[in-house]
What does this fold into?
Amino acid sequence: MLVQDYMTKHPLMGRLTMSISEVQHYMADNDLRHLPVVGDGKRLLGLVTRQSLLVEPVRLRSLDVWEISRYLTTESIDVVMIPADDVITIKGDATIEDAARTMVRNRVGCLPVVEDGIVVGIITETDLLAQLAEIMACSADIPAVRATVQMPNRTGNLAKMVQAIAAQDWGILALGGAVNRDDPAVWDAVVKIDNVTKDAVREVLGEVEGHRVTDLREA
Amino acid sequence: MLVQDYMTKHPLMGRLTMSISEVQHYMADNDLRHLPVVGDGKRLLGLVTRQSLLVEPVRLRSLDVWEISRYLTTESIDVVMIPADDVITIKGDATIEDAARTMVRNRVGCLPVVEDGIVVGIITETDLLAQLAEIMACSADIPAVRATVQMPNRTGNLAKMVQAIAAQDWGILALGGAVNRDDPAVWDAVVKIDNVTKDAVREVLGEVEGHRVTDLREA
Amino acid sequence: MAQNRWVADDSHRVQTPILEAKNLAVSYEIRDGQVNAVRDVSFKIHRGETLGLVGESGCGKSTVAFSIVRFLGKNGRITGGSIRFQGQELQDLSEREVRSLRGDQMAMVYQDPFQSLNPCMRIGDQLCEVLQEHRGLSDREASVRAIQMLDAVYMPDSAAVMRRFPHQLSGGQQQRVVIAMALLNNPALLIMDEPTTALDVTVEAVVLDLVDELRRRLDTGVLYITHDLGVISRVADRIGVMYAGEMVEVASAVDTFIRPMHPYTEGLMRCVPKLGLSKESSSLYPIRGRVPAPTALPPGCVFEPRCDYARRRCREKHPELRSVEREHLVRCHRAEEIRETEWRPSDETILDLQERLRSRSEDGSKVLEVSDLRTYYDQESKGILSLFGLGEKRQVKAVDGVSFEVGAGTTLGVVGESGCGKSTLARTIIGLESSRDGKIDFLGFDATLPLSRRDKRLIKDLQMVFQNPDSTLNPSFPVGYQIARPLRRFGKVDRARIGDEVVRLLNRVKLDGSYYDRLPRQLSGGEKQRVGIARAFATNPRLVLCDEPVSSLDVSVQAAVLNLLMEIQQEHNSPLLLIAHDLSVVRFFSDAIMVMYLGKACEIGPAEAVYAPPYHPYTEALLSAVPTADPRVEQKRIRLSGSVPSALNPPTGCRFHTRCGRKVGTICETEEPPEIGFGDQHRIYCHLPLEELEAMDAVITA
Amino acid sequence: MAQNRWVADDSHRVQTPILEAKNLAVSYEIRDGQVNAVRDVSFKIHRGETLGLVGESGCGKSTVAFSIVRFLGKNGRITGGSIRFQGQELQDLSEREVRSLRGDQMAMVYQDPFQSLNPCMRIGDQLCEVLQEHRGLSDREASVRAIQMLDAVYMPDSAAVMRRFPHQLSGGQQQRVVIAMALLNNPALLIMDEPTTALDVTVEAVVLDLVDELRRRLDTGVLYITHDLGVISRVADRIGVMYAGEMVEVASAVDTFIRPMHPYTEGLMRCVPKLGLSKESSSLYPIRGRVPAPTALPPGCVFEPRCDYARRRCREKHPELRSVEREHLVRCHRAEEIRETEWRPSDETILDLQERLRSRSEDGSKVLEVSDLRTYYDQESKGILSLFGLGEKRQVKAVDGVSFEVGAGTTLGVVGESGCGKSTLARTIIGLESSRDGKIDFLGFDATLPLSRRDKRLIKDLQMVFQNPDSTLNPSFPVGYQIARPLRRFGKVDRARIGDEVVRLLNRVKLDGSYYDRLPRQLSGGEKQRVGIARAFATNPRLVLCDEPVSSLDVSVQAAVLNLLMEIQQEHNSPLLLIAHDLSVVRFFSDAIMVMYLGKACEIGPAEAVYAPPYHPYTEALLSAVPTADPRVEQKRIRLSGSVPSALNPPTGCRFHTRCGRKVGTICETEEPPEIGFGDQHRIYCHLPLEELEAMDAVITA
It folds into this structure.
């Protein structure tokens, strides 16, 4: 469950000798949203994103056709790349939650995974999403009930729920929670329980004091 | 924990009367990666993404300066938008895991949330990532131990772990797992336990038969 | 679990405000030029955020609202700046596009729900029409959706409401329908212009809760316009303070109340009584002067003429709205320099007043003694039988057995929702209604007599200040003439000196002699109310009944009028019966308070005792509902369901049992509640056991 | 939990293959023109995927590999198509850029690890040099990283290995060092050209496991070149089959083996014995003809001359590589029409042979009886004392007490890792080594005598086929002369008829008379081995010893040679002693099998009994390691650590105890294991209790 387990190893990478037009082609051909640029020894020099590649319309209008052509074919990748110093990176042994936090906080969709300055992989929002969703979703082929329970955002409440489940000898497949978006005094927990019926879950979890089952479905 | 709880409500939306250049400006000004295009009554007509906005370099080179200018200022949004029929959407009462699956499977970074054809919100990879990571990460200010445990991918193994934890009267803050990426016979579980030491967790979880603690950290 | 979550905010989401006004200017064409009603107004409303817009009447709040929805009328237009809605410049949009936005992405709720409702159409049809127009839903779908929306605004029995006409609903219900209608299309922006001003405090509380909940649930941006600082404190995340067409301060709600930085905002705060404070412990400081007309703005800071901190710079240079702290914008040259603690009132007499109030001594003599008073009306049944004269005559028991007394020089406040009988009580005492039963002893007079049969002396000694001075001032006569009338009638003053006496009275209410010849329509609301007070006190009465004397006034005027009332009361040592819905005002002004519900007193006692536990459950609910002008205050959330039952057919037993959250059992439904005394004349009428009453928590904690 | 996960694949990731060759063509300039060695080769390698490239020698596999790393030499060049590495056209890159890629992002491992290692440099220095050159690491960092990498390839005592020179390591260890070196820079692409061909099956298994694990862990794309269908079945996800410089089929490993669609692939599959099958139950069908020279390609399909399904179209039109099913490309006009089940061998004699093998009866007479045979060598100590003649003479106990017998007309297979003594055993029987002790009774002769002292008759009756015919064929003499030599020497044939007899023998091994005058270098490997067989059987011997007779041959030639051996053996009813490392071949060919370890027999018995439980733990490990040419087969994963201990100082007790996974206890270290008989002459030498032996699971399950 670490970044190194879920990153894309051997990502496609750009070289400083590429022109902007080559980079555009390379990224389009390979359906890349992000392209780390490396020097010899896969040392991170920068990052090109689709955003950094966009030719701004304003600029387009101000350039004449010769300039556009020159811009695209002769300017090199370093004109459009985010320099390494400004690229947010992560190490391979960070947890995937850490990576998710880093991305969300910095509003970036991808993190080059760097060890000793060397690019060893790249991890994207989608990689994390696939994995985090899988963690919460568990396997699709076990009959399970997914319940969302609202409880006071105070220590001990999650334990009450887990105990209620344990008391039934039910198996927890996944469990997690977060502060309610609308009301920070409320904590929303999601739990997946296998081999039970919705009714049984409703009854047992509904009886926990101060807890309220807000959503219940087979999942 | 449903899409409607985490989507961005009242997303910025485009209208058919916008020119490509207006759309580009609008998206750039508002830092948008995705723009649903709606008709009267917020009916979904299409979706513009940064990708669909990119003027392909090939095309740029083949257009002369007058054509580029005309293209950007007079062609309307429908030239660059993905038509509604091809846009992957989701309903508000889907779970966030469902949304994550849908995005990962379809390789899209955003889903318009649509009810009866009406756009009621938009949910992006980042929204889900923030939430799913939060679910797994729990609050940052409770001292907790995060353990990754490898176990055989067979029913009953997760239960064994949960029981071992319950037997210690420890509180589970979060729990989840997924099939190991390298070996489908192995299941990786992540569990967060509060108010314990790493050593205690290592000892208790390490004793479960067939289980192996592969990572242990304070989180 | 703890509140600290690492994704503390939605910083990863689109940060574009739902609405952003920048240097907005709006002008109206008038015959002889143009009025710059709104100038240089900037603010933002983010998703899920309520921006409160406050300021006195005539400061341009509603003009801002109308400029957003492009409802400025034929002569109004935006003359400068920009309004961006969802990142798009509204001025770039065609009339057609704005119209489509208006139905679809913005909605507006006005003070008077009737303005938004078609009186000739059933509620259901009106709701469905909106859905069908914008969404193209079928009748059935639209109807289902409309009912869901009525449920969402907590409309009881929403399916039945669908079939009713607007007039068949209470005001609160009407306003909820209007809100439901506004939300039908899930707008990104909801503009609310004084939506609760016409509502009872309990209903207001429910509507405010609703707005807040919907904002959070739907992430709607709300522009909430009100003059009520209590309401804005409850509802707003950030507050924009407007003055004379300009935005003078924008800050978070807490900062606005706790650390206001503009002298005008500070001034507003000093005008409102904080709930729990009394006239002995605090003073209200009206802002001197009045809002300038947009055609006669001062050259420098528009607030300068009224500002206690003004310097030369303020007179010479118009200040910009500038960021003084993070998220705190102020239009004042001296924002950083001025300290609230250094402020001294310009009118030192207010401090004297407080001093005098503190040192007054009650002689304990009773001026008014009311025992078991009952005022019933007959009402024709509205059923079909009445057409044939067969309708049963039904009685409205507006006042149904009320007993209290008012001592010399003291004030008795009477509170309760509309329909509780408090106005009927006043009108019975003053003789505008006849009592059915009970006694009113006023200095030995029997005041149960109707006005027509009252002794002249009784009339002279028992005066009243009405809520709406318009309704008691004859628009055709000059002010002086109308104040002179009682003087003339009761012959208290020599005819030759009446003119002087009127001027003295005008001066007494802080109006100069020039008002003598003005007609009422030339007066502002506050001025009219001063005239009303002058007239009431003209005869030097022994008791003045005040029925919502300040509720229609701006806060600054309100403060001035309340101060005036106190001053005059102090001067005359005349007791007052003060009826008001504003529980802060009543608490501030009154020595004793009576809480009425459906014609009966629930609780009566010294003001500080009534506003502290033990409470009658109804008092508790009222206090929970009252908006307090302090966002730090925590209030227990007790909401009464429904509105006051009809007095035609009041509930049996304790009349409050149908809405009571502390109902004991069937005893509440069958037996009149007993009187429970707590010493010091504090009485509660309730079936609750003494222990439980005594164990009650305070509703309001700072 | 279950294996079904909803994100079944990485479809959301970048789908660009690590390597993609499209219509690749490579030519070599030769004196009289150009050889189109590789034509129209297309394939992709995705991240974390191993593409196996198989095909007989000379089909262009290695040329493809060299063209990727641009190692084609002075006269070779890419003449068409493209190679994209990570989405970039390699041909667009400068020599400098390719060089940088080669060290950094691609790496190559050859068959002979020595080719990649500098014999004069310590392992550690060689590894660190790579890191310092490409990464600029300090000595210390490089050294730490190098040791980590050696650990990653499961090198025992990696810190010590760092200080050694290449020759101080075993072949398997050397190959691991080379793989570690290749992986130091974490390349995206690893090209492996027959990396395990020189290794023992047990070491090969470890290396193959390693490659597979690293591929999965590092997501490296692997191009794995081998002629060994068993290896490719174990290691490859997808397989490309090359024939005569063209890619003729590309499919998943399972499809390639289970549903091959190209007649050549089908043919390859028919050439290899499936593990567990015997010559009585199945036949090997060599592909007739031979691979055409690139200068003499047929006009239509290149495989047409050897194809049993060929039609006129195949002769006239060169087929394209086309997609026949999803992810299954075939270069055959008739891929959809041909059915493997309808295939009949072109050479019906093979079926006759199987028939004859099935119906043969053993007369039970013994031809060879070996009892407690010991062959020891003296070896000088290599220590410094030996310089002074003080070195202790040490004995290598290559064969240390082996007993077995071979009956008339039967084959005894001998298996075991290198160094187990199986070749020494054969060389002792044939008289090339002297035994120290024990008896060899060969039809009444004492065959312990050295060759020089043997009777002519004994020599005539005891012949040998060597692994490498080159080493026994004199390059200076024509083939015919060399076959004639034994005929002449043993005078079996009239001198005048020797020429005819040689031609008969050549025909017998399916070579025509024209080979009589050819020199060995004009022959292919298979042809040389046929000559070797012809020569061995020329004297009509009574026992033939075959030491790895087919291990250096391509599968099709192997099948032909094996069939030939069987045929001739059947004809002469001569028993065979077959030494081979390929356990499938041994199982297929042999009636009885002896498993040797460090000079001793571990297990001996009928072939089917030895290949089924109970096993000696060493047999079990060997069977677990053997690559089977069937991806559906499941093998228990038992890996021996380390290599065979030195025979200079063999372990005490059971010699296998140092590597045994089923060691019972100290008894294994101290006592020779007892013989446990299972009837039918099946014997196991092991300390394991009978129950445990009998409870063993089968290693291989289909």
